[in-house]
Amino acid sequence: MLVTVFGGGGFIGRHIVQRLAAAGHSIRIAGRDTERAARLCTMGGVGQITPIAASITDEASSARAVAGADIVINLVGILFESRAGDFQRIQSEGAGRVARLAAAAGAKQFLHLSAIGADAASPSLYAQTKAAGEAAVLAAFPGAIILRPSVVFGAEDQFFNRFAGLAALLPFMPVVAGETRFQPVYVGDVADAAMAALADPAASGKVFELGGPRVMSMRQVLRYILDVTGRQRPMITLPEGFVRLQARLGELLPTPPLTRDQLILLGKDNVVSPNALGFQALGIEPKAVEAIVPGYLARFRVGGQRVTAPS
To answer: Residue 301's Cα: distance from chain center in Å?
Structure first.
């Protein structure tokens, strides 16, 4: 089949593209950075993977990207706004646009990546627009499959790697929202879930929440990182007022380390809902943090990756 993947050059997208190529599909990677997408061409045979310039905020380029596609996958999302209204333009309107154009082009299946915490009633713009995007997708393509992962980890993640880097730089480990719970999910398992859902006719029109086998509070995550990397650091809870100020100032940077909207998100647990469909419904046993994370955090260990032979 011909599969168009919006955001296929990203962290999760690369794993999905790899699996699509292994399954023999022809793939268009639609996005603004065609150079980054071109690096994935080696995952398939000659001509099997084609980067195509497109933006989900643009009608014409999105229509070209989905033309003739049997399956359309939308993985595009942002964690912060570069300019006001980006959440709405990208996560709500953009998602709905791609679904509408995919339906008009005759695509047989549509898969949309959302997030646990998508909630139209949330005070967070991120969560609001994720929910609005889901609604727009299902309105335009009622049989769409929606995946909602918790925080996703893997060798190139911005979660475990980020805090391990902080531990290597700072004399203490800063703690924000220490009691908020997460259910970290391995990126490869998310990609496997996408493939399993597309292969299962019963998944049409359904929402799947994806979380790993272990629920961890933010404090437990940070303690785990310190243990894995061998860092002896006191864990210090930052004052709420200081964190809000840092978030406000951080928004002045091109890539803010923390925003006020993200602080709102950190106030709510990010775990699979009790009655939600998940990995079990797709026949997948998710991998534990302990099976994956130590391997790629090795570069942050005290003394690096050297192993000292016993005396």
So the answer is: 26
- Do 84 and 90 form a contact (C-beta atoms < 8 A)? no
- For residue 4, the cross-strand partners are 28, 72
85-110 burial, b for 16+ CB within 10 Å, e for fewer? ebbbbbbbbbbbbbbbbbbebebebb
Q: If DSSP codes are grouped into helix, strand and coil, which group holds residue 251? A: coil
Question: Is the pTM for the entire model greater than 0.90?
Answer: yes
Q: Which two tokens stand for residue 16?
A: 């999905």
Q: What is the pLDDT of residue 309?
A: 38
- What lies within 8 Å, CB to CB, of 151 at 6+ separation is 159, 182, 183, 184, 185, 270
CA distance 306 to 41: 34
pLDDT digits (tens, 9 = 90+) for 252-289: 899 899 999 999 999 999 999 999 999 999 999 999 99
Flag whether pLDDT at 17 surpasses 70.
yes
pLDDT score at 147? 98
Structure token digits, residue 230? 């061998």
Q: Are 29 and 75 in contact, with CB atoms under 8 Å apart?
A: no
Scanning the chain, the segments in alpha helix (DSSP H) are 11-22, 34-38, 59-66, 86, 95-104, 125-140, 160-169, 187-199, 218-229, 240-250, 260-265, 289-296
Q: What is the mean pLDDT of residues 26-46?
A: 92
Q: How far apart are CA 123 and CA 16, in angstroms?
A: 31
